[in-house]
Amino acid sequence: MKISFPTLHTLPGRQLLCCLALLLVLPFTACDDDSANSPTTTIRPKGPKPEWAPTIKPEMQTVIEALDSLSKGVSLTSLTPQQARLAPSATDAAMAVMKNFRIPAPTPQVDTTGQRIPVAGGTIRVRIYTPKNATASMPGIVYYQGGGWVIANLNTYDPSARALAEQTGAVVVSVQYRKAPEFKYPTAHNDAFAAYRWVRDNAATLKINVQRIAVAGESAGGNLAASVCMMAKTANVPLPVHQLLVYPIARYDMNTPSYTQYAAAKPLSKPLMQWFFDKYLNTPTEGASPLISLTNASNLQGLPPTTVINAEIDPLQSEGQEYAAKLKAAGISVTTKVYEGVTHEFFGMATVVPEAKEAQALAATELKKSFQ
């Protein structure tokens, strides 16, 4: 509401006092340019809902529109892996929405350091998120990024790793495993397991309580987190206390109900998943391995408590829920939820997508239960 006042020095004394009193009691209203800084900022998309996502929420649609704008309509499947690694990501799109709607970045609550750790045949990078002013032995989370085992890096999934550290009070070690096609299956899986063992071996230096280490990951990283639990079980290495699997790749099967319904979804589509598989697997027959098709594992008993988070508008929804059901059938404590109206990659977008904030809170709650 805007109110126009006469020039104050022209008013008679009584009217001047009335105007001053009114100014004191009027609520402050920011100008239009600043109103987007408010926590109540309404994020609205520019266009109609896409045909492939009739249930998409406005905030999620706005991120997808930003991604379309940044990518200029170029599909990752038309690029080489090296080119695709330089293409705009969903994280870039979320940051663009924050900029467009003047949403400030949260104040960091963790300190970060980076280093290289040894793996078979070389080294890989990790980023360590330590809660500020940490002094005691804390829980730890080994976090694996998504990207189809082909693209993405530590920065792409920084919002997710940072949020987990802040909301659980755990030290998060984010792992940049080697990527395909330069490093084919099972390199990423072996790197992931090596990183888990390294965290265990260096827990004291990292200020981590070795008895309270969990694994977490998104998409291909969710697949790796689940695989690390299976590999630890086989190798008689102490298992993680929890596995957080966010829209994990859990089947080498692109004929599931969600693959059919959301074949043209963004940012992950059926053709893009085929592109990822083609780059990582040496042969299609490797897709049947329980480390790729988690649902093919014959013995899931003894695995840790699990949280499975899926997005509704995502080709991977069906297989994530199928794996959750198989874990439950094996007697594993499982918490699972499908978040409606959002797409693959939503989890790290808590600054702009309400469902991401809810999913992060659920993940933190379940992780903390296992840390107790």
UniProtKB/TrEMBL annotation:
UniProt protein name: Alpha/beta hydrolase
Domain of life: Bacteria
Keywords linked to the UniProt accession: Hydrolase, Plasmid, Signal
PANTHER family xref list: AB HYDROLASE SUPERFAMILY PROTEIN C4A8.06C, ALPHA_BETA HYDROLASE FOLD-3 DOMAIN-CONTAINING PROTEIN-RELATED
Transmembrane annotation, as ranges: none
InterPro entries membership: AB_hydrolase_3, AB_hydrolase_fold, GDXG_lipolytic_enzyme
Signal peptide stretch: 1-30
Organism of derivation: Hymenobacter tibetensis
Domain Alpha/beta hydrolase fold-3: 141-347
Pfam families assigned: Abhydrolase_3
GO molecular function, one term: hydrolase activity
The keyword Signal appears for this protein: yes
